[in-house]
Amino acid sequence: MAETPIGDIAQIHILYPETEKITKTFILMYAKIVNPVMKFLFKNSVLQAAATVIEQDTSAVESLYPRQKPKIRLPNEEIMFYAEKLYHNW
């Protein structure tokens, strides 16, 4: 919860993994605005700030794990490595 000059704002981040490579992100935001005029003026600003937070978090998480080939090979995966090698040599 954050206390700001326009009022109190609370937000909750929810990460919902759909598949192995896709995760949905939701933000629940609650605001208790002191002045109704401020509510009208800052509504879009708060929503844009939340969108910026999502974009920054997404890029940070994506950069944590560089895309690289695995260093170990499991016996069940050996056929896939062989197929990939054939594909690239073709």
Report the mean per-residue pLDDT as an integer. 79
Residue share in β-strands:
25-35%
Low-confidence stretches: none
Compressed to H and E, one letter per element, the order equals EEEHH
Number of helices: 2
- The largest beta-sheet arranges its strands as 1-2-3
Protein architecture, described:
The model has no long low-confidence stretch (mean pLDDT about 80). The N and C termini lie far apart (about 60 Å). A hairpin with a 5-residue loop joins strand 2 and strand 3 (about 25-35). This protein is of the alpha+beta class and about 90 residues long. It has a 3-stranded antiparallel sheet with strand order 1-2-3, with helices on one face. The protein is rod-shaped and about 65 Å long. The chain has helices at about 35-65, 80-90; strands spanning about 1-5, 5-15, 25-35. About 45% of the residues lie in helices and about 30% in strands.
Offer a quick outline of the entry.
With 90 residues, the protein is of the alpha+beta class. The protein has helices at 36-64, 78-89, and strands spanning 2-4, 7-17, 23-33.
Supply the key terms.
single chain, 90 residues, alpha+beta, 3 strands, 28% strand
Task: Annotate the secondary structure layout.
Blueprint (H helix, E strand, L loop, with lengths): L1 E3 L2 E11 L5 E11 L2 H29 L13 H12 L1
Antiparallel strand pairs: 1-2, 2-3
